[in-house]
Amino acid sequence: MNAARDLFNDADIQVGETQQTILPAPVFEPPKGAIAVTPGATPGCYAVEISNEDYHACRNYLSHSGMLKLLRSPAHYLAYLTKDDGDSLNPYSAYHAAVLEPDRFAKEFIAFPGRRQGKVWDEFQAQHAGFTILNKSEMDTANGMRDAVKAYDEIPLWAMLRASETEKSIFWYDEELGVNLRIRADALHPNVIFDLKGIDDARPHKAIRQIVQMEYDLQAALYVRGVAAYFGRRLPFVFGFVEDKPPHGVWLQTAGQSILANGERKLRRGAAAFKRLQETGDWHGYQNACSVVELPRWATLEPDLDDDLA
């Protein structure tokens, strides 16, 4: 079955006002804000040194986050493209910086221990313009998670991260899928792709729930494909789960074949939807959004238990 047909039908592409069209880039043009560009092993693939803000502003290249929205509907993807995050801070941004870029963390992050109001707070902000200001709890969490990664001894994790390229951005035209794609790897080691995740419980039988809910399978498949385009070989994708509460347990979990295979199916479906959007400019929302809802199996009472209560 054509993957695009799982998301669209002939009637779908005839409706909806055309708002804008995303065009593929047949020839690579460095994205706005690119500092340096390095060709990869595959034609049309480049590593780009670029800020996080400029990376996320590249609309002609589909990312993991964007694909998740597009797989819901083009309207969700449009809202994602046009959102204004303002000064919002990802709760794990400080932890990421502390682990992946400790020098930048020391220079750009600072804690304010008091209440964020009054003259003292105003003066602190003025004196630390350009810093990301955390409260004491946030700073303690970032430092605790960093120290837990340092202490991990199953493998020399901290040393491997220091030997990795961090925040590695890769842009490529995927000839098989026919779309422009991009990734930004937390830590790209010569032998492994590391992706750091904050979590409340890092044990595998708990972490799998977050993998499924957040659709990390799609991320793993996309990153493996992107790194293969750049290096010319596939590398394992490893989730680095670190608990956000003391003692900040750490558990490395390599994406298995079922995760990668399921993610690949989502990736192909997302690529087909992106091509359809490029061709039609149709940013419709949910289609056939009327259905009967039933309880899932896990929420239903067993018949024998129900009978016993009667």
Helix and strand arrangement:
Elements: E1 36-39, E2 45-49, H1 52-56, H2 64-72, H3 74-82, H4 93-100, H5 102-108, E3 109-111, H6 118-127, E4 132-134, H7 136-151, H8 157-162, E5 165-174, E6 179-189, E7 192-199, H9 204-213, H10 216-231, E8 237-243, E9 250-254, H11 257-280, H12 303-309
Parallel strand pairs: 3-4, 7-8
Antiparallel strand pairs: 1-2, 2-5, 5-6, 6-7, 8-9
Helix pairs in contact: 2-3, 2-11, 4-5, 4-7, 10-11
Brief digest:
By secondary structure, this protein is of the alpha+beta class.
Would you mind describing this structure in some detail?
The chain is an alpha+beta fold. It has a single domain, classed as Lambda Exonuclease, Chain A (Alpha-Beta Complex), CATH 3.90.320. Helices cover 41% and strands 18% of the residues. It is built from twelve helices and nine strands. It has helices spanning 52-56, 64-72, 74-82, 93-100, 102-108, 118-127, 136-151, 157-162, 204-213, 216-231, 257-280, 303-309, and strands spanning 36-39, 45-49, 109-111, 132-134, 165-174, 179-189, 192-199, 237-243, 250-254. Strands 1-2-5-6-7-8-9 form a seven-stranded mixed sheet, sandwiched between helices. A two-stranded parallel sheet has the order 3-4. The termini are far apart. Residues 1-20 have low confidence and may be disordered.
